[in-house]
C-alpha cells in the first residue's frame, strides 16, 4: 500500500505514522508534502498513491486548491481541526476525515472504511468550490478569548499585531502585552479576516497594520520589521512570498 501524507506540521505527520503503526497498517510512504505548490509539482512527476492523508490548512493555503490544478483519484482521508459544519459537508460527500487531535480509535475506523471500500469516493467540484469559498470568508471573528492571570479576558482581533506559536503554546501580541490563546495557529487563521491577517509561515500570523518595513531575505524570501517585535523574527516562507506580496497590494 503506497500512501502520501500532505501535512504542513512535522509533528502531526509523525503522529499519523505512529497511529498507522499502532493500527498495524502496512504501507510504503511515498513522501510528506507541506504545501499546495509542492503537491501539484509532485503529482506532475510521480505515479499516484493508493491512499492520501491530507491536512486542510497547508503552508501556502487550503488543500482544496490542489483539486483545481490536479486530478486526484486516490481515496483521501482528510485531517482537520475545522468546525462541525465543514465536517458535515465532508460526510455528505462521502469524504472521510480525522478530527485533530487524532485518536487511535478514529484512525482505526478510517482505515477499516478504506479497507472495505478501497476506491475513490469522488469529489463533487461544485461542493468543493462552495467549501473553499465558505472557509475563506465565513465566521470572521471580532474577538478572541485569552488567559489573564487566573482568568480570561477578550481582546479585539483588530488590536492583535501578530500571533505566534512557541513550544506548542499559542501567543497573541497587542500594544498592551502578550497573551496565551488556547487555540492552534491552524484553527485561528480560519476565523480571522484574510484582508487583515496573513499566515507568513507555519507558526506566525501577522496583521497588515503591524508591518513597519519589508526587507529582502536569502532564498527568495522576505523579512518583516514589525512595530512591536518582542524579540521575534518574522520571515515569510518561500512558498508564501508571492502570495504575501500580492496580499499587501490589496
Automatic annotation (TrEMBL):
MF-aspect GO terms? DNA binding; phosphorelay response regulator activity
> Is Cell inner membrane found in the keyword set?
no
- InterPro entries referenced in this protein's UniProt entry, alphabetically: CheY-like_superfamily, LytR-like, LytTR_DNA-bd_dom, Sig_transdc_resp-reg_receiver
Give the keywords, sorted: DNA-binding, Phosphoprotein
Q: Which SUPFAM superfamilies match?
A: CheY-like
Looking up PROSITE patterns in the UniProt record yields: HTH_LYTTR, RESPONSE_REGULATORY
Under the heading Gene3D superfamilies, the entry gives: 3.40.50.2300, LytTr DNA-binding domain (2.40.50.1020)
Q: Which residues form the Response regulatory domain?
A: 2-115
Q: Which of the residues bear the PTM 4-aspartylphosphate?
A: 55
Which superkingdom heads the taxonomic lineage of this protein's source? Answer: Bacteria
Q: Which residues form the HTH LytTR-type domain?
A: 144-250
Q: Name one Pfam family in it.
A: LytTR
Among PANTHER family, the record links this protein to: STAGE 0 SPORULATION PROTEIN A HOMOLOG, TRANSCRIPTIONAL REGULATOR-RELATED
What is the name listed in the Swiss-Prot or TrEMBL entry for this protein? DNA-binding response regulator
Q: Which organism is it from?
A: Portibacter lacus
Lineage of origin: Bacteria, Pseudomonadati, Bacteroidota, Saprospiria, Saprospirales
Amino acid at each position: 500500500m503506497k500512501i502520501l501524507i500532505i501535512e504542513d506540521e512535522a509533528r502531526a505527520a509523525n503522529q499519523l505514522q505512529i497511529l498507522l503503526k499502532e493500527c498495524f497498517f502496512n504501507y510504503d510512504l511515498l513522501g510528506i508534502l507541506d504545501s499546495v505548490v509542492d503537491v501539484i509539482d509532485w503529482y506532475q512527476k510521480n505515479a499516484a498513491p493508493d491512499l492520501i492523508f491530507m491536512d486542510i490548512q497547508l503552508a501556502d493555503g487550503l488543500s482544496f486548491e490542489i483539486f483545481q490544478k490536479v486530478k486526484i483519484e486516490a481515496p483521501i482521508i482528510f485531517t482537520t481541526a475545522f468546525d462541525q459544519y465543514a465536517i458535515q459537508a465532508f460526510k455528505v460527500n462521502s469524504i472521510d476525515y480525522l478530527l485533530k487531535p487524532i485518536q487511535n480509535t478514529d484512525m482505526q475506523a478510517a482505515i477499516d472504511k478504506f479497507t472495505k471500500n478501497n476506491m475513490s469516493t469522488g469529489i463533487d467540484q461544485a461542493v468543493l468550490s462552495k467549501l473553499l469559498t465558505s472557509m475563506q470568508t465565513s465566521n470572521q471573528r471580532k474577538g478572541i478569548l485569552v488567559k489573564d492571570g487566573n482568568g480570561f479576558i477578550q481582546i479585539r482581533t483588530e488590536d492583535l499585531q501578530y500571533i505566534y506559536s512557541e513550544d506548542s503554546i499559542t501567543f497573541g501580541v497587542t500594544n498592551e502585552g502578550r497573551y496565551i490563546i488556547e487555540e492552534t495557529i491552524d484553527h485561528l487563521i480560519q476565523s480571522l479576516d484574510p484582508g487583515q491577517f496573513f499566515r507568513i509561515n507555519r507558526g506566525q500570523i501577522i496583521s497588515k497594520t503591524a508591518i513597519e518595513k519589508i526587507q529582502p531575505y536569502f532564498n527568495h524570501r522576505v523579512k518583516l520589521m514589525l512595530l512591536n517585535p518582542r524579540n521575534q523574527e518574522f520571515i515569510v516562507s518561500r512558498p508564501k512570498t508571492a502570495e504575501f506580496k500580492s496580499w499587501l497590494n490589496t
